[in-house]
């Protein structure tokens, strides 16, 4: 085992995610707890992080994107990626596993992504609840069990979800995105947007593609679905009310779009969202 002499910024002192996670470079570190705060400041780890949450909505922000982590999903955060965590409530439960690099690591582990959690992975997550703190390579079979959790993830995580929106750098596009967010209950057309901001449709299309690497309709659809997820989870609205709040007059159209983006119909998602707290 190799002890590291990492030092933390003063405001992070005594926070486990800075002072303890990377203390031993070859250990697997486990941490299950209620977040207990409204905001986890930007920080970075030398280890890869598996983060699963329950009991509320979590936004996770990196320098490039804002990720939306809903119930029944996990996010993989590679080592070296600076991020901050913004829970909807201090009572959100976080289940974290931090892994060192292994020679067997594939490209899967180098990407920040969100994936759905199936029943098998849920059982494995709950199994890890018995672990807390460092697990060292000499602690067998515990270490091999913890390591296998990481190794099996690519097999159980075939479908990444586009639950992230990139940040624009262009000021006009920042204004446009802010406008879309503020008018989320209106079905804003591409044409009306170009008129509103005095920019040609061709230029606007290029701007979205260049700045955000997606089309207007892709961005707008994901924005509306992420907002819908938040309303379903936080505001306890009915599916019909949520559809209207994100600008859909047709419930079937909303349900079909939600299913395409999230991978499950909103009615089914509502049934899944109530997860048991396990301390």
From TrEMBL:
The record ties this protein, via SMART domains, to: HTH_ARAC
Top-rank lineage group of the source organism: Bacteria
Pfam family for this entry, one: AraC_binding
Q: Which GO terms describe its molecular function?
A: DNA-binding transcription factor activity; sequence-specific DNA binding
Keyword field: DNA-binding, Transcription, Transcription regulation
Domain named HTH araC/xylS-type: residues: 174-272
Please give the name of this protein: Helix-turn-helix domain-containing protein
């Amino acid at each position: 085992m190799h002890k590291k002499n990492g030092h933390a910024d003063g405001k992070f002192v005594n926070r486990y995610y800075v002072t303890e996670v990377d203390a031993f470079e070859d250990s697997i570190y486990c941490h299950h707890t209620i977040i207990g705060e409204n905001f986890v400041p930007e920080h970075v780890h030398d280890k890869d992080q598996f983060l699963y949450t329950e009991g509320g909505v979590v936004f996770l922000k990196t320098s490039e994107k804002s990720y939306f982590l809903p119930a029944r999903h996990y996010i993989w955060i590679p080592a070296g990626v600076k991020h901050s965590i913004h829970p909807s409530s201090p009572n959100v439960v976080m289940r974290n596993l931090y892994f060192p690099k292994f020679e067997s690591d594939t490209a899967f582990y180098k990407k920040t992504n969100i994936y759905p959690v199936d029943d098998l992975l849920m059982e494995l997550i709950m199994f890890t609840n018995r672990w807390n703190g460092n697990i060292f390579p000499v602690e067998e079979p515990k270490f091999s069990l913890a390591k296998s959790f990481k190794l099996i993830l690519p097999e159980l995580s075939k479908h990444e979800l586009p639950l992230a929106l990139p940040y624009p750098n262009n000021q006009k596009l920042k204004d446009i995105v802010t406008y879309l967010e503020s008018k989320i209950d209106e079905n804003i057309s591409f044409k009306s947007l170009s008129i509103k901001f005095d920019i040609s449709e061709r230029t606007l299309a290029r701007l979205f593609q260049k700045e955000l690497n997606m089309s207007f309709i892709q961005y707008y659809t994901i924005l509306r679905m992420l907002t819908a997820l938040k309303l379903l989870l936080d505001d306890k609205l009915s599916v019909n009310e949520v559809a209207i709040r994100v600008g859909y007059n047709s419930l079937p159209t909303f349900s079909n779009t939600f299913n395409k983006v999230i991978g499950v119909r909103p009615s089914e998602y509502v049934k899944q969202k109530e997860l048991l707290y396990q301390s």
